[in-house]
Amino acid sequence: PEIISQLAVAEESIYKPRGYNHRTRESEDWCQFWFEYPNMPIKGLYQIQLSEEFEFEFKQTEEFILHKINTVPQFITYIAEHGDVKHRRQLASRTNTPINLLEQLAEDDDVEVRMKIDLSRFNNNLPILLKISKDLDVRMRRKLISSDEETPAEILEILKHDEAEEIKLSLTRNTKNPVDILYQLAKDSSYKVKQE
Q1: Fewest C-beta atoms under 10 Å: which of 12, 55, 186, 195?
Q2: In sequence order, what DSSP letters do the residues of the chain get, joined into one string?
Q3: Between vectors from CA 101 to CA 98 and to CA 102, what angle results, nearest 5°?
């Protein structure tokens, strides 16, 4: 621990973590490492630091690529597949993200990535809308109804049988829905849905 503390306060030490403050010569990261791994050799601590710096630089690279979205399509594809969740959310919310990547992001494990997608971009893509109509998160299914565009009849047929009451309530409140859908919902087992 003594040699580690000497390396941490050295002005040009390569062992200093990213959070190191030159003025106070303090680092919460280093203190945490000292307490958690008091017997770890310096090489091990250095490897941890290198991996953190790599991760930090990689995230900065993703940020740069997102700002230059029309430059190299392979980079954008990489972010959609392997990028940090924050960057996948940014990619999903952009209006110029290619449709094939939006299709991929519509199946992302992170629901907030999926929620960032403007579903009106899928209006002519029934297969992807059908997948979204079966999304595990009720908010995604509700987005299909609340979008400004008219919901395709095939999607309405699926959603009128949705187990979530709020989906059926959303259907009854959407004035663009066909009368026969509303008529069927009037016979629903839910009292709230019937009343709407």
Answers
A1: 12
A2: -HHHHHHHHSTT-TT--TT-BTTTTB-HHHHHHHHH-TT--HHHHHHHHHHHHHHHHHHHHHHHHHHTTTS-HHHHHHHHHHS-HHHHHHHHH-TTS-HHHHHHHTT-SSHHHHHTS-GGGGTT-HHHHHHHTT-SSHHHHHHHHHSSSPPPHHHHHHHTT-S-HHHHHHHHH-TTS-HHHHHHHTT-S-HHHHH-
A3: 85
pLDDT digits (tens, 9 = 90+) for 88-101: 998 899 888 889 99
Instruction: Find tokens 């069927």 and name the residue.
Output: 184
- Contact between residue 139 and residue 162 where contact means Cβ atoms under 8 Å apart: no
Under 8 Å between Cβ of 132 and 140: yes
From 13-17, 45-49, 75-79, 112-116, the region with the lowest mean pLDDT:
13-17
